[in-house]
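Students often ask why we bother encoding 3D structure as a string. The short answer is that it lets us treat folding as translation between two languages. Here is a chain of 223 residues written in the first language.
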Amino acid sequence: MRKTLNDNPVLQIVILGVLGVGVAFLLMTRVMHKSNSSSTATTPTASATGTATPPMAGATSAVPGATTGAVPSTTAPSTVAPVAPSTGDAASAGALPSKLIPGPGLPKPVARAYADGKAIVLFVFRHRGIDDAAVRTSVERLRGRGDLAVFVTHAAGISRYASITEGVDVNQVPALVVVRPRQLAHGTPTATVSYGFRGPDSVEQAVRDGLYRGPSNLPYYPR
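And here it is in the second language, the structure alphabet:
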């Protein structure tokens, strides 16, 4: 048969053609198989209705402009309001014992001055700094007035004036306490206290407030 194949060119061409067709068929089958495998791996999963399957619970998706991994807090941060230092501008009032008589918590000169109808000015300080010294100087200048009785004490001796300081709840120093005159107290001794640095004009104003004789129910606007 080999001799026949060698001597017959037509038969040789036929055999080569058959071999070529077989090789081409094998190559096409392999290429198609690879193409199907690739398309299966890259095609997204779809449901029976043709829509894409939604992501499973717990899965995260990237959102443009969003910070990944950050969970917004629903609890408002706690705030702490800062405590403002005393400026000496505000004054609080308080009621004193029904009778200011000499004894523990009230020296005799204070009780005598109140009985004589004078306003009591009590200044309590602690430090010998510039602020305390300036306020004390302004208070000392009031000693020449006949309608006032001025007393100055260090915080260490505040217990001697407890009948007054406890009535207005003195809780810091320097403190300026003004007790209204007996004739303006309407039967109940009253006083005001203000804290912090005060200039001479502010000290004078505190005294004027203590000696005020007008109505106490003034409105916040002009009549």
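Translate back mentally: The CA atoms of residues 179 and 191 lie 4 Å apart. Keep this in mind for the problem set.
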